[in-house]
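Supplementary Note 2. Why include the ligand at all?

Several targets in our set were suspected to adopt different conformations when bound, so apo predictions alone were not considered sufficient. For every target with a known small-molecule partner we therefore ran a joint prediction. The input for flavin-adenine dinucleotide is given below.
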Amino acid sequence: MMLNKDYSLARHNTFGMDVHASAWAEFASEEALRALLLSPDFVPWRERFLVIGSGSNLLFCGDYDGLVLHSAIRGIRVVEETADDVLACAGSGVIWDDFVAWAVGQGYYGAENLSAIPGEVGASAVQNIGAYGAEVCQLIEYVSALDLDGEPHVFTNVECRYGYRDSIFKNEWKGRYVITSVTYRLHKQGTLNLSYGNLRERLPEGGATLSGVREAVCAVRAAKLPDPAVMGNAGSFFKNPVIARWQYDHLRDVWPSMPSYPVDDEHVKVPAGWLIEQCGWKGRALGRAAVHEHQALVLVNLGGATGDEVVSLARHIVADVRQKFGIEISPEVNVI
Ligand SMILES: Cc1cc2nc3c(=O)[nH]c(=O)nc-3n(C[C@H](O)[C@H](O)[C@H](O)COP(=O)(O)OP(=O)(O)OC[C@H]3O[C@@H](n4cnc5c(N)ncnc54)[C@H](O)[C@@H]3O)c2cc1C
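The joint prediction is reproduced in token form.
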């Protein structure tokens, strides 16, 4: 397999950072990946490599001194079918939204609320992507991967230890596996999840369809989120913090309009965008990095910003939220 040296990552990260990797390689099959991992060419990079998808959740703070690997394993196939469900296996290099379009086109339920999320199938299983009341871990049956010795592994959903935008691949197993495919359980019949008001508003009362939900999600997202092709960004920069219910009750005495969503009996989730907006950051810039004028959760590259400028902006925001509310917000974006 060809290793490309001093490779530009400008087209491979949605923040639009003009950085280079020492080397780049793309694999189109599990066999090609295994051959690379076992070849002498990989030895110098074993301790410094990074697998990326579309780079839509990455912030590069400079050139990457290592090998960047990218999956070009494509293809979606039904591997099992019952009266109610199908198991659909997608290559890790499939564009996530192409998978959703395929599922909806086949009339399979489950992925429609996750329409138009940027990125690829491999990362969906790392990030546990979520939107409009759905998370991909509700669909994932198992994740196939190779370890650095080229050995295949198949992990069950439980083994992936999914949490809010979190999985074992971001923690204990970081850098240990390269995901080659993900198998999702989709349903032949389903109940549409219209729990989000701005989704419901766009759909006919009582007459929503599977494809209608997909169209509504795409329309809401297009109206709400900045297009990375126009303004570099990685979607929500911060996770919504989960805090103790007692802490929320105290805070609400001071901030009666503070929104929250229940997590369990003892915890609630507070929208980070609201906290950032209250700190006066919405629409404000620091150098060439800014908080989006309509979406306080999204940090944007106004043009030519460095990763360090974005990190500096993020640090100011974290400090202000901490000082004002005593709440710690943390990045969803992977800072490299
Ligand atoms: C405009 C915009 C809107 C967004 N909206 C949402 C949203 O609504 N919900 C949401 O959850 N996210 C959202 N995101 C974030 C992003 O789309 C997701 O995190 C997505 O899963 C990232 O996919 P990617 O292929 O770009 O992964 P990358 O950003 O390239 O990588 C993400 C992580 O996955 C790892 N990884 C990637 N591929 C593999 C592989 N094959 N094997 C092992 N590890 C791998 C990387 O090492 C990295 O840790 C948004 C981003 C943007 C730009």
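The helical segments are 30-38, 96-106, 121-127, 197-200, 210-224, 245-254, 272-278, 307-325. The longest helix spans residues 307-325. Comparable summaries for the other entries are listed in the accompanying table.
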